[in-house]
Structure formats: structure tokens, C-alpha cells
Design goal:
This protein is an alpha+beta fold. It is built from four helices and ten strands. The chain has a five-stranded mixed beta sheet, covered by helices on one side. Strands 2-3-4 form a three-stranded antiparallel beta sheet, with no helix packed on it. Strand 3 and strand 4 form a beta hairpin. Helix 2 runs parallel beside helix 3.
């Protein structure tokens, strides 16, 4: 697994993780599911599958970078000959640029799911627009995974970006979920206790707001659901919800 500056405990302690598993449709793996025991993954014939690969950190679109030079495409291209068949692609990374702290590895501006627009001279997130560079890049990664025989695990939300992390650019201060980084008012400030993060109970993860899958406009849950729905049909994925 590739080493990262991102805190390991931040990855493991997120309150809710929404996972989409995409099967690379090869002759030996025509589908993916979960055994009734809940103990392991199976193919469409019910045979247990052993997954070996990367729980990785990188920018979703190829050619862009977070604060180090990792690339999902390189992991897949180099791992495929050695029967590596699993890769995690995170969709919850913050927008890093040449001026964030830490900056992106090469000084480029990292695309994220929501589009950043010129908002009075400063680029901020428009939560009602998708960034096509991000979504086209993600599709290209999934296409490559299919060619290389990888199962892709998409994590939509991530605890790293909801925590303060000392003000680092991968933390809440630079998150597009932070109203301070948005062009407009989309929902009330979710940092209800004003401690510089939204990882506390009832802040980012508001289960009751989902209202049986229909959160009301003007809530953070409404935009979380938009993101879930954007991912759900795009890759013909088997959908699983889990806590971690």
C-alpha cells in the first residue's frame, strides 16, 4: 500500500463510508457480491474472491495530483501483471492548488466533484454544478480498471476532509463542504459546535435528515444525496453501505 501524509487513523475512524464496488468485467470475474455470511466477497457463482491491492490516495483524474505524486493509473498498470485486482479511489479529497498548505505536488489545481467558479475574484465551490474534468477523469480510471481486471472501490465521503487536521489543506478548512469555501449559501453551517471540523455527532452525518432517502433541499444531507446519486448509476455498480 502506498504511504501517505494523510493520517492513518483519520481513514479508519470515519463515521459512515458509502462504498461502490465496480467489477472489472473479465472472463474470470463476471460480477461481485457479498457472501450471505458477510465474511467475504464472491463472484456471480458464489465463489469466494481474494482481493489484493491498494487503499490508495491520489487525485481521481489522471494527470492531477494531491500533495504527493501518486497516480491511480500507475498503480493499476504496474500492479496488473502481478495479479493485483483491487483499488480504492477516494472521491472525498479536497481541492489542492499551488497555494494551499500543503500544495498539490506539481502546483496544478486538483479537480473535485463540485465545480469551483469565480466568486468575486476567489474560486469557490458551486454545489449545484459538477466539475466535468473530475467526472470524465473518474470514468477514465474505471475504464482502465476494467481493462486491467481491477475491482474499484469508490469511497464517496472521507473523514479526513471533515476533521480540522491542524488547518492543513486536506482538512475541513479547505473542504468544499465548508460554507466558507462555497459561492453562495446552500445549507446552514454544519459546524454546530464551532470547533473547526464537522466530524462530531450530528454534523456531517445526519442520518435523520435523509428522511428515507429524500433529504430536504437546503440541508447538507441533500447535497450528500446528490453526490451519492451522481455516482450510483454511472458505473453500473453493486452498492454497499457500511460503517467504519
Amino acid at each position: 500500500m502506498l504511504a501517505s501524509k494523510w493520517p492513518a487513523k483519520a481513514v479508519s475512524a470515519a463515521a459512515i463510508c458509502v462504498i461502490f464496488v465496480i467489477l472489472a468485467a473479465t472472463p474470470i470475474m463476471a460480477g461481485v457480491g457479498i457472501h450471505p455470511s458477510g465474511r467475504y466477497y464472491t463472484d456471480t457463482n458464489g465463489n469466494a474472491k481474494f482481493l489484493l491491492g491498494y487503499y490508495a490516495w491520489a487525485a481521481a483524474p489522471d494527470g492531477y495530483f494531491i500533495d504527493h505524486p501518486a497516480r491511480y493509473s500507475v498503480m493499476m498498470n504496474q500492479g496488473s501483471p502481478y495479479k493485483i485486482n483491487y483499488i480504492r479511489i477516494g472521491l472525498g479529497g479536497n481541492r489542492m492548488t499551488a497555494t494551499t498548505n500543503p500544495p498539490s505536488w506539481d502546483g496544478s489545481t486538483q479537480p473535485v466533484p463540485f465545480l469551483f467558479v469565480n466568486c468575486g475574484g476567489t474560486y469557490k465551490a458551486d454545489m449545484n454544478q459538477w466539475d466535468p474534468v473530475f467526472w470524465n477523469g473518474l470514468k477514465a480510471q474505471c475504464d482502465l480498471a476494467q481493462q486491467k481486471g481491477f475491482i474499484v472501490h469508490l469511497t464517496i465521503f472521507d473523514g479526513v476532509g471533515t476533521r480540522s487536521n491542524g488547518g492543513a489543506s486536506y482538512g475541513y478548512s479547505n473542504s468544499d463542504w465548508n460554507p466558507a469555501n462555497q459561492c453562495g449559501t446552500f445549507y446552514p453551517n454544519p459546524d454546530t459546535n464551532q470547533n473547526g471540523q464537522i466530524d462530531d455527532p450530528g454534523e456531517f452525518y445526519r442520518v435523520t435528515e435523509f428522511n428515507n432517502g429524500n433529504p430536504a433541499p437546503g440541508t447538507i444531507s441533500y447535497y450528500e444525496k446528490l453526490l451519492i446519486d451522481k455516482v450510483r448509476p454511472s458505473w453500473r455498480a453493486t452498492t454497499m453501505f457500511s460503517t467504519r
